Amino acid sequence: MVRNFILASGYSEAEIEAQLARLGAKKTGVSAESKDAARIAEAAYWERVRNGKSVSVADLPRRPIAETMTAIRTDYAENEWEWDFVKPMVYAIVALGYGDAALCEKLGLSPKKGLIVSGGYGLGKTTAFDMCKKHGALYAEIVSCLTLKKIVLKDGYAGVDKYETRRNVVFDDFGREGATANNYGNRIDAVADIVAARYDLFRAGKIGLTCFTTNLSLSAIAEAYSPHITDRIKEMCNVLILPERKSYRQ
Fold first, then answer.
1. Crossing angle of helices 13-25/65-78, nearest 10°?
2. pTM for the predicted model, two decimal places
3. Of 4, 163, 193, 218, which residue is most buried, by most CB within 10 angstroms?
4. How far apart are CA 55 and CA 140, in angstroms?
């Protein structure tokens, strides 16, 4: 069951909720003026990210984790999502996006790794990352792997070079693009090549999080690409496999 992901470290859900409350309590009593200033600073930060300018995590005023979780849960309630099902994804994405070692430990996650979320279509994988990014988890971009393939086919690798080094990127729908493409007679594996480049930087400790959503199992990824790529992904990422259930899109 997916709830076992949250409880894998042996901590109860109540203990995890208490940890979130303690983290949130660190920044209580903030004035409305300070919150407004933080929102303006955050907007300026993301504008620099969008424009490809140099930024530091220290430049981003962070909303308390408990406040982030409350905002995300409210969004899900408004959209009639089943919170108990999506909660493991949300906890993992927020904990890693904030780089919170204490919360990662309680969830059984390595804070130095990204996250691959594997499960059937229509289970809310992309939505979970979108929600968490919207409410403060530090992910620079969520990019479709199919889009990357199209860019490479049109413009070559120059159009996707930035994804080899950019911090905290989510590669959405990994596997949907197909392992190979043809560019003027040259066979290319656009996303696999990006994964390989990011892996080298990960081993050197010179890159942020690499995350994926995929409808494929790890064994299917190995068949579509190679066992070598799967091994690299498992080394770079915490793994969350969702249980089977009916698509939310139906």
1. 120
2. 0.76
3. 163
4. 11
Contact 153, 181 (CB under 8 A): yes
Return the structure tokens found at 82: 């089943």
DSSP string, 25-54: HTTTT--HHHHHHHHHHHHHHHHHHHTT--
Structural contact between residues 63 and 135, judged by C-beta atoms closer than 8 angstroms:
yes
Single out the residue of 131, 133, 128, 103 nearest to residue 117, CA to CA.
128
CATH number of 3-28+64-241: 3.40.50
Q: Where are the domains of the chain?
A: 3-28+64-241
User: How many Cβ atoms are within 10 Å of 100's Cβ, its own excluded?
Assistant: 20
Q: In what order do the strands lie in the sheet with 237-241?
A: 141-144, 169-172, 210-214, 114-118, 237-241
User: Which two tokens mark 156?
Assistant: 């070559």
Q: What is the pLDDT along the chain (250 residues), one digit of tens a residue?
A: 333 344 334 445 565 555 555 544 443 344 555 555 555 665 665 566 556 565 444 454 556 788 888 889 888 888 777 888 888 899 999 999 988 888 888 888 999 999 999 999 889 999 999 999 888 787 889 999 999 988 888 887 888 889 999 889 999 999 887 655 555 555 668 888 899 999 999 999 988 999 999 999 989 998 888 898 999 999 999 999 998 877 776 6
Residues 6 or more apart whose Cβ sits within 8 Å of residue 226 = 192
